[in-house]
């Protein structure tokens, strides 16, 4: 497993500060949820960690097992074991889903140590079956014409195939019907081990009925303002975010 440490992170978009001093430590095997109202900066946090060029880290550090993540190229971050599921996964035309997965797996392995084709196919079939996916999805072009639910399910397939040590899942639950939500949760829960930790970013508590986080953090206006256990998510579902704002004297 790996440890991700974020210290006093500040992130700006087009000179506007969005993340205003954020601290978070994720240890091997831990599931953390970050919840917060729209516009709090949750997606900005995910994108900044993954190195999206639009997001400028103005100060602070992000390390993985002591190594500076912010110094790494985007592909090096993936190779180091970080995984990001995007809120809006993009289409890559001309590349089948299976080809994409195989090259992504091989990109993480040493040259000359590529995954044997049969081993890849077996793992792919097994994972797709587990996620109740139509096997034809493997031969379709990545995300092209995928429904919202198929894209999300496909991201969990990527997660299971790539076996990252730390995953950041941004609104993996948005737009899912209850059956798709259950399958997506099943896939994430199947990853639970000491070698895997995850940061689940969500606006709604619903997903956390199926995936029990070890820690819940509330993000408001670019900062984590409160942390607790799963019961915190339940209180947010019942009462919204206003009581926290009131408690901490945060103005809208
Ligand atoms: P959340 O995911 O919590 O809803 P975001 O991180 O998407 O919040 O957005 C935080 C703030 O940053 C919002 O005020 C949003 O308008 C702004 N923002 C996010 N992405 C961009 C962008 N690409 N360009 C300009 N402003 C952005
Ligand atoms: Mg600060
Ligand atoms: Mg968002």
TrEMBL record:
Q: Which GO terms describe its molecular function?
A: ATP binding; ATP hydrolysis activity
In terms of Gene3D superfamilies, this protein maps to:
P-loop containing nucleotide triphosphate hydrolases
Q: Which organism is it from?
A: Caldibacillus thermoamylovorans
Give the superkingdom in one word: Bacteria
Identify the keywords attached in UniProt to this record, alphabetized.
ATP-binding, Nucleotide-binding
What Pfam families does UniProt report for this protein, alphabetically? ABC_tran (PF00005)
Protein name according to UniProt: Vegetative protein 296
Task: Describe the location of the ABC transporter domain by residue ranges.
Answer: 4-246
SMART domains hit by this protein: AAA (SM00382)
Phylogenetic lineage: Bacteria, Bacillati, Bacillota, Bacilli, Bacillales
The entry assigns this protein to a family as follows: Belongs to the ABC transporter superfamily. Ycf16 family.
* Record flagged with keyword Methyltransferase: no
Is Nucleotide-binding given among the entry's keywords?
Answer: yes
- NCBIfam families (UniProt xref): sufC
What PANTHER family is this protein classified in?
ABC TRANSPORTER I FAMILY MEMBER 6, CHLOROPLASTIC
């Amino acid at each position: 497993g790996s440890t991700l440490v974020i210290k006093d992170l500040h992130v700006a978009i087009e000179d506007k500060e969005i993340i205003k001093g954020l601290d978070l430590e994720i240890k091997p095997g831990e599931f953390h949820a970050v919840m917060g109202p729209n516009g709090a900066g949750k997606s900005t946090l995910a994108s900044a960690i993954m190195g999206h060029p639009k997001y400028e880290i103005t100060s602070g550090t992000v390390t993985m097992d002591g190594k500076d993540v912010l110094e790494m190229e985007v592909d090096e971050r993936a190779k180091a074991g970080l995984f990001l599921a995007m809120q809006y996964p993009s289409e890559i035309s001309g590349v089948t889903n299976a080809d994409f997965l195989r090259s992504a797996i091989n990109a993480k392995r040493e040259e000359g140590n590529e995954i044997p084709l049969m081993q890849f196919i077996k793992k792919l079939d097994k994972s797709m079956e587990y996620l109740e996916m139509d096997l034809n999805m493997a031969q379709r072009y990545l995300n092209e014409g995928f429904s919202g639910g198929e894209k999300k399910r496909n991201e969990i397939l990527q997660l299971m195939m790539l076996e990252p040590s730390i995953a950041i899942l941004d609104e993996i639950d948005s737009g899912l019907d209850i059956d798709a939500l259950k399958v997506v949760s099943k896939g994430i829960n199947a990853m639970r081990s000491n070698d895997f930790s995850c940061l689940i970013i969500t606006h709604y508590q619903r997903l956390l009925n199926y995936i029990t986080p070890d820690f819940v953090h509330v993000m408001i206006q670019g900062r984590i303002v409160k942390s607790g256990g799963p019961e915190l998510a339940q209180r947010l579902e019942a009462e919204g975010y206003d009581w926290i704002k009131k408690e901490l004297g945060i103005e809208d």
